Amino acid sequence: MGGDGAGPVSTAVATPVAIELRDIVKRFPGVVANDGVDLTVRAGSVHAIVGENGAGKSTLMKTLYGAHRPDEGTIVVDGKERHFRSPADAIDAGIGMVFQHFMLADNFTVWENVVLGSEPGNPVHLDIRGARRRITELAERYGLAVDPEELVSDLGVGDKQRVEILKVLYRGARILILDEPTAVLVPHEVDELFASLRDLTAHGSTVIFISHKLDEVLGNADAITVIRAGRTVGEVDDPSTVTSHQLAEMMVGSELPSPETREKTVRPEVVLEVRDLTVGVNSSEVSFGQLATGDAASQSVVTQASTTSEATVPATALRAVDRVSFSVHAGEIVGIAGVEGNGQTELVEAIMGLRDATGVVLLDGKDLGAMATLERRVAGIGYVPEDRQRDGMVLTFPIWENVLLGHQGGAPFVKGGFMDRGAIRDRAKQIVTEFDVRTPGIEVPAFTLSGGNQQKLIVGREMKSEPKVLLASHPTRGVDVGAQAVIWDILRAARAAGLATLLISADLEELIGLSDRLLVMLRGRIVAEVDPAAVTPVELGSYMTGATS
Amino acid sequence: MNRRILGQLLAPLLAAAVAIIVSSIALLIADESPITAFKAMWSNIDGTGAIILIVNRAVPYYVAGVAVAIGFKMNLFNIGAAGQYQLAALLAAAAGAAVSLWAPLHIAFVFVVAVVVGAAYAAIAGILKVWRGVNEVISTIMLNYIAIGISAFLLSEPLRNDLSGNLAATRSLPNSAHLPALDRLFSAIGFHLPGGVSLDGFLPFAILIGIGYWLLLNRSRFGFNLRVSGANPAAARTAGVNPKRMILITITLSGAIAGMIGLGPLLTEEFNYGDQFPKSLGFTGIAIALLGRNHPVGVAAAAVVWATIERATQPLSTIGIPQEIGVILQGSFLLAAVIAYEVVKRWSDAAEARAAAGRTPDVPMAETAIAETGVATT
Fold first, then answer.
1. Contacts of A418 in chain B (CB under 8 A)
2. Shortest CA distance from B238: residue in chain A
3. d(CA A235, CA A41)
4. Distance (Å, rounded) from C-alpha A212 to C-alpha B324?
């Protein structure tokens, strides 16, 4: 039982150890992902593993889950040494993994998803009733309320996660590993999740979760292991003895960044103005699967519908964005807070011309209504999409080609219909150096970059094209503390230089720290405007959920 | 980069080994000696003359491969190359025979007709897709049958040269529309081709098509948009690429190139369009594009491989071995190659990610350098 130096001795002796990893080393050619990691997890506890992106957390969990075998070290589960050849072995030992990206069949019901792969009954008979009974039982016992008959596609993110947990429990897991379970959840769902995890441990299960949100780690974990650069650098047996600041320093090994923006740089001129922007819930995306004729259809049908002609506007209940009006000044960051799915995505896409909408969007007083997406970009809108890998880059393309993405509208990268490869490469090199994108070069494919470096590349790409306004959706989601600090610095510097920024984020600290003004979106409407200097995350949360109005 | 190229070469070698094993098994089942068969095959592809004949055969395959590949590049499956080139060749043959022009102009005229017909016929599928969402696989298959029907009708009377003859064909092109073989060109530079064979006059055009395809793909904005649309449609949309315009242009372009598939046979060999005209080039193009990974050079290699197998297996029937072994070779080679490419790609991607992670500089965040392992990112 090595490695619990500072913990209270009395409890340490009393509770048995569920998992003990000793000196785990996992090498990949050229990289040592885990370089002697120790981990001791007590039975019936909620154990957090924290560390930056790339610190080796996921590699360690994959080792524990049997996804690969460690090069050195031992795995002891419930006092017995184990050698997992596959995840099936780990499941046999009672270890289940809940992945960050859900692995559910959308067009199946909840119970079908849960039993998928380990169906009850025999090969010719699926014991549907038994399956449902067992799932309902599990759901009730652990407070994981979901209707087994519901289609997964109709579920919210929190419910989907509960289904994932049920899947693991259904297979008899007593030790659950959750990989960044809260990355996709909103505050009240986070609370529900941890309540469920508490129920699990109360029933004797053990929970390990990976996170880099330190507050929730401190608030919910019984013990914490900090990993940095493939090594265990800290073990905390009593979270009340550490502060998030100390934890963060252990993670980073240095001073931690803060999102705070100080002196106001807001200038009088309005750069982006949005008036009565309305998007229907089923508004068509301008996409590759869509059915409409050539050019006309791809330009969003932004008609300058006056607010009175309601006939052209979808009924209130069917609006993803409902008559939203606001403006962003030069040198100003306007933050949009809101529980995800309340119209923020649609709002941004409508401004980008990626979604049909009614209302007016003005850039420097110029109506963008008739412009297609590329023209809007050329006109001066920079865009950091919320899902960087899906919308922001082509992972198989080299870094320098990704620099062209979204900026192929003309000079300086495209001349006479042909790519100016020299200019693009030069820009790519500039971005890599100026924005600290860590990469061996600009010729490597984008998938070789870590998430934080991909995001720095995207932010750098947008910034270097010197936009008048930047739409930044979740600019630091899922990136490590180092990259987050760099991105915050970039946004702050651009603000000081006069950039108008619309910031959408789920990270309330980021919103409060960076924004000059905060708008709260709820059910497609802007329901409040608050002063970030005066508001607390708790107050903001109550606006977001409609508790305060 | 070298790792990628190595992988690209490794995959076909693996595939060739698999194909030889599979066809050997087939031969053994048929109670024939694989050694005898492969010896006979080798003898028919050995020598300069044989190589020239293989290249000649590969030329239309290459054009067909490029036509299909350009669609594949953005996940558009143009199965209609068959119909597009047949209609294009028929109308180009008829139009070419109807006019009398100065030779270069005459050939250019035939080209233009073929390209326009191919493009227009493919555009139907493109319009259906962007306007009504009709899947291009379905529409191009159906358009193939319609093209066959139209050709049969046109050959039955309106464009038929000799109504009394047994063979239905258009009027033959006059000499001014014949593409000369390249032999004389070779002789002029002091290189004499072996007797009895001549190098296809369409070869330079096929090379130009390949260069054009490469330039378009790797150097032009259109090509960039095309590749982005194929690799990540969501990112293309976000980057402001107009999806419908891309679909329409790409299908039309594919059809334009498909229109030229039949020009080789038409201008250098057949000189008219009739019952004898090769009809299966469009479908061969699909196999060749797949085998060549849609790459301008890869498709060329694939076309040569395809033609080599066909040429090699020709003499087999004379020694009592079923010639169909060639089809088995082609089929197993294609299948194995597609699988091998995928396997090798995963392997080289992973290797590349590791190598990049290994070479990623540890820029210190503060005084402590933090290893970006890359592989292990959450």
1. 219-221
2. A391
3. 11
4. 62
Reported as type and span, the H/E element at residue A336 is strand A333-337
- Residues B204-213 have a mean pLDDT of 96
- Does the beta carbon of A28 lie under 8 angstroms from any beta carbon of chain B? yes
CA pseudo-torsion sign B156, B161, B165, B166: negative
| Whether B220 and A391 lie within 8 Å, measured CB to CB | no
Domain formed by B58-320, architecture: Orthogonal Bundle (1.10)
Helices (H), chain B: 2-29, 34-45, 48-72, 81-98, 103-132, 136-156, 183-188, 203-219, 221-231, 233-238, 243-258, 263-265, 281-291, 296-313, 325-359
Q: C-alpha angle with apex B99: B96 to B103, nearest 5 degrees?
A: 75
Which residues of chain B lie closer than 8 angstroms to A414, CB-CB? 221
CA distance A403 to A540: 36
Whether A461 and A404 have beta carbons less than 8 Å apart is answered as no
Residue with tokens 């119970």: A111
Nearest residue of A to residue B358, measured between CA atoms:
A30
B-contacting residues in A 336-395 (Cβ below 8 Å)? 352-354, 372-377, 383, 385, 387, 390-395
Q: Where are the domains of chain B?
A: 1-32+322-358, 58-320
When CB atoms are compared, the residue of A59, A292, A418 closest to B221 is A418
Burial B346-367 (b: 16+ CB within 10 A, else e): eebbeebbbbbbeebeeeebee
Q: What is the mean pLDDT of each run of 10 residues along chain A (549 residues)?
A: 41 71 78 82 92 77 88 90 88 87 85 84 81 86 83 83 89 89 77 88 90 81 87 87 78 61 81 92 54 33 35 53 93 89 90 91 90 92 90 92 90 89 93 88 87 90 93 85 86 92 87 91 90 81 73
Contacts of B378 in chain A (CB under 8 A): 53-54, 57-58, 100, 179-180, 210, 451, 478
Can you tell me the ipTM of this complex? 0.82
Beta bridge partners of A517: A334
* CA distance to partner chain A, nearest, from residue B243 (Å): 5
Look up residue B322 and give its amino acid. Answer: P
